[in-house]
C-alpha cells in the first residue's frame, strides 16, 4: 500500500509551524513521536465528557472510563498477539516496565552468583535497572558485544551463557545504531539453555510487526509515546507463569485483594502490578494511537521509513568527513553520525536555529559512545510524517553549516 504522506501530515498540526521563522523539520521521532489529532481529540473528549477514576465502579463516568481503559488492554493484546489480556500490564513507560521486571524477576528468581546478559548497544533503561538488581542480589552482569558496523555478536552467546545465566536483556531495535536484532534467534538460543529473555521493544514497536508468541518472548516492553501515543504510558507484556511467581513491584490501591494489619493479599494479574491511579487519559488516548498505526499498517510505515533511511544515508555519505555509526543492512529509520573536526553539539545547535530538530549528545547510550570512543553524536530519526524534501533540506543545512564552521 502506498501511503499518502501529505494527507498523513495533516493529522500532525504541530509540524505545520515555523521555529525561528523557519519551517519546522522534526527529525527526532526516536526520542518521541508527534501525536496525531485523533489521539489529542480523544484526550480532550475524555476530559470533556466522561473522566472518572477507573475500577471503582462507583458511577456512570467511572464505568465508561473503565470500559475504555480496559478496551485498550484488549487492543494491545491483539496488537502484539499476547495469549491473554492479563499479560498486558500498564506502566508509565519502557523504563518503568524494565525496572518492574528487574525488581520483581530479581526478587523471585535471582540469587547470589547468578548472571544476567545485557547487550552493549542498550539504552541506559535496559542497563541500569539490571545493575541495581545485580548489586542488591549479588548477581553479575555480562556483556554481549557488537561489531563496529552495529551488528550484535550473537554467536558469542554460546560462550556467555552458562549454568548461572538467568536472563538476557536485549533491544529489538537499538536507539542509537538503528540495528534490528534477530531477537527470535536470541530467544531460541536462550530457551535451549533455560534462560529467559526480556526484549526492549521501545524502538521496534512502530517499525516491526511484533508477535510475542511467535518471538516466544518472556518479557516485551515498550512506550506509547514512541508510537504516536501519549507520554507517561508504557506496556509490559510478560509470560503468565513468570508474572504469577513475581512479587508486586509497588504497593497501594488496586494491586490488593484484601488489606488488614495482620497481612495483605494481592490482586490477580494484571492488577497486581498496577498500584495506584494510572494514567487513565493516556491509556485511553493510546487506543487511538494503536488504531492510527494499525490503519496505516506497520509494514507500510516501515517500508516508507526505510526509503527515507536509504535516501538520507546516501546523501549524508556525500558529505566529507561523515562518520555514520551503525551501517549494517538490518536497520530502522535512525542515523547516528558525526562530522570529522566539528563538535556534535555545534552541529545540532546550528541545525536547531535552521528549524531542524535532531538529537545530540550521548543518546542515553554511554556504552555505545564508549565503543566508538566518542563523547557525543548527532541522531536524525524518521517517522512516517517526514518527507524526502525534508531530508534534502536537512542535507543542505548540514552543507551550509559546514561552510560556516570551517
Ligand atoms: N529503550 C530504548 C531502546 C529507547 O529508545 C528508550 C527511549 N529513548 C527507552 C528504552 C526508554 O523509554 P522511556 O523513556 O519511554 O521509558
UniProtKB/TrEMBL annotation:
Domain of life: Bacteria
GO biological process: cysteine metabolic process
Gene Ontology molecular function, alphabetical: cysteine desulfurase activity; lyase activity; pyridoxal phosphate binding
Cofactor(s), by name: pyridoxal 5'-phosphate
Aminotransferase class V domain mapped to chain residues: 25-394
Pfam family, one: Aminotran_5
EC number(s) given by UniProt: 2.8.1.7
Keywords linked to the UniProt accession: Lyase, Pyridoxal phosphate, Transferase
Catalysis performed (reactions): (sulfur carrier)-H + L-cysteine = (sulfur carrier)-SH + L-alanine
Family to which the UniProt record says this protein belongs: Belongs to the class-V pyridoxal-phosphate-dependent aminotransferase family. Csd subfamily.
Function noted in UniProt: Catalyzes the removal of elemental sulfur and selenium atoms from L-cysteine, L-cystine, L-selenocysteine, and L-selenocystine to produce L-alanine.
Listed name of the protein: Probable cysteine desulfurase
Record organism: Mangrovibacterium diazotrophicum
Amino acid at each position: 500500500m502506498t501511503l499518502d504522506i501529505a494527507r498523513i501530515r495533516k493529522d500532525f498540526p504541530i509540524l505545520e509551524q515555523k521555529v525561528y521563522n523557519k519551517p519546522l523539520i522534526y527529525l527526532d521521532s526516536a526520542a518521541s513521536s508527534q501525536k496525531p489529532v485523533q489521539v489529542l481529540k480523544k484526550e480532550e473528549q475524555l476530559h470533556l465528557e466522561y473522566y472518572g477514576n477507573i475500577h471503582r465502579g462507583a458511577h456512570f463516568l467511572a464505568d465508561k472510563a473503565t470500559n475504555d481503559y480496559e478496551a485498550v488492554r484488549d487492543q494491545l493484546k491483539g496488537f502484539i498477539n499476547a495469549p491473554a489480556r492479563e499479560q498486558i500490564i500498564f506502566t508509565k513507560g519502557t523504563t518503568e516496565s524494565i525496572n518492574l521486571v528487574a525488581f520483581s524477576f530479581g526478587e523471585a528468581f535471582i540469587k547470589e552468583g547468578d548472571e544476567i546478559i545485557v547487550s552493549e548497544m542498550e539504552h541506559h533503561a535496559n542497563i541500569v535497572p539490571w545493575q541495581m538488581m545485580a548489586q542488591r542480589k549479588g548477581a553479575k552482569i555480562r556483556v554481549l558485544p557488537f561489531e563496529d558496523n552495529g551488528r550484535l555478536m550473537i554467536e558469542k552467546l554460546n560462550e556467555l551463557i552458562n549454568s548461572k545465566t538467568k536472563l538476557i536483556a536485549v533491544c529489538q531495535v537499538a536507539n542509537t545504531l538503528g540495528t534490528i536484532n534477530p531477537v527470535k534467534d536470541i530467544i531460541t538460543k536462550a530457551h535451549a539453555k533455560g534462560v529467559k529473555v526480556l526484549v526492549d521493544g521501545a524502538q521496534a514497536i512502530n517499525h516491526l510487526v511484533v508477535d510475542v508468541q511467535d518471538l516466544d518472548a518472556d518479557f516485551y516492553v515498550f512506550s506509547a509515546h514512541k508510537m504516536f501515543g501519549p507520554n507517561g504510558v508504557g506496556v509490559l507484556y510478560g509470560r503468565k507463569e513468570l508474572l504469577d511467581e513475581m512479587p508486586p513491584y509497588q504497593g497501594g490501591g488496586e494491586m490488593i485483594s484484601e488489606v488488614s494489619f495482620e497481612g495483605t493479599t494481592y490482586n490477580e494479574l494484571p492488577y497486581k502490578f498496577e498500584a495506584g491511579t494510572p494514567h487513565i487519559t493516556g491509556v485511553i488516548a493510546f487506543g487511538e494511537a494503536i488504531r492510527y498505526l494499525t490503519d496505516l499498517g506497520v509494514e507500510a510505515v516501515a517500508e516508507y521509513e526505510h526509503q527515507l533511511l536509504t535516501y538520507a544515508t546516501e546523501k549524508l555519505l556525500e558529505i566529507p568527513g561523515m562518520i555514520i555509526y551503525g551501517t549494517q543492512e538490518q536497520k530502522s529509520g535512525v542515523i547516528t553520525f558525526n562530522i570529522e573536526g566539528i563538535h556534535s553539539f555545534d552541529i545540532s545547535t546550528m541545525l536547531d536555529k535552521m528549524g531542524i530538530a535532531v538529537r545530540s549528545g550521548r543518546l542515553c547510550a554511554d556504552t555505545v559512545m564508549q565503543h566508538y570512543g566518542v563523547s557525543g553524536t548527532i541522531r536524525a530519526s524518521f517517522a512516517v510524517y517526514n518527507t524526502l524534501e525534508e531530508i534534502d533540506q536537512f542535507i543542505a543545512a548540514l552543507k551550509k553549516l559546514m561552510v560556516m564552521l570551517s
